[in-house]
Amino acid sequence: MTGKTHQVLGITIGTSYFLASKAPTYEPATFGAVLVFSYLAALLPDIDQPAGKFWHFLPFGHTLGKVSNPFLEHRNITHSFLGAAIVCTGMILLFRLSPSYWGIDTHMVTICALASYLSHIFADMFTNEGVPLFFPWHRFFGLPLKPFEGFRVATGKWFENLVIFPVINIVLIVFVISNWSKLHSILFK
Fold first, then answer.
1. Cβ distance 180 to 26 under 8 Å?
2. pLDDT-based confidence at 56, cuts 50/70/90?
3. For residue 32, what pLDDT is reported?
4. How much is the pLDDT for 59?
5. Is residue 112 within 8 Å of residue 37, measured between CB atoms?
6. Residue of 17, 9, 26, 14 lying closest to 183 (CA atoms)
7. Of the four, 137, 168, 176, 177, which is 20 to 30 A from 186 by CA?
8. pLDDT tens across 138-150, in order?
9. Mean pLDDT, to the nearest integer, of 160-169?
């Protein structure tokens, strides 16, 4: 899948989990953090590509991406359960640094970001290449399983751009509209 598909899917998953599991109380800082970290976590598995969208957010990101390229192969550790565990541990350690007076529910943000990270891996399972879920074991897993692997999606081709990407956007819009009163309570006093 392309970066734009992962971005929208990550925001959809993170926001959906947040709205489905939180009481409608005033928490704009937590909701903002959920949006930002869900967005970034959905792009994080592609950090192993020097041209990945994640690098565009960092100062000197393009250079850092090129420096890291010889050390990381695409769709290896970052597209596995081990990579997800490392990222989750890193987020937990990062959020311990945030002061409590910011009013951010860091536990909720971590869960939403992890769900977004895993959505990237799950979406890439539907591509022709699949993902190495159990890295360092280099067996790639994909959906649908054999003998139906011919129905997998080619990254960046017409089916992703004309079907998958619009459907995910529609799901996000419908979910936001159907939860508008709850979202209003979270954002406004």
1. no
2. low
3. 94
4. 64
5. yes
6. 26
7. 168
8. 888 888 887 777 7
9. 93
Q: In this structure, what token pair is assigned to residue 103?
A: 């009013």
The DSSP code sequence of the chain is --HHHHHHHHHHHHHHHHHHHS-S---HHHHHHHHHHHHHHHHGGGGGSTT-GGGGGSTTHHHHHHHHTTT--TTSGGGSHHHHHHHHHHHHHHHHTS-GGG---HHHHHHHHHHHHHHHHHHHTTBSS-B-TTTTS---B-SSPTT-GGGPBPTTSHHIIIIIHHHHHHHHHHHHHHTHHHHHHHH--
How many structural domains does the chain have?
1
The residue segments making up the domain with residue 135 are: 3-187
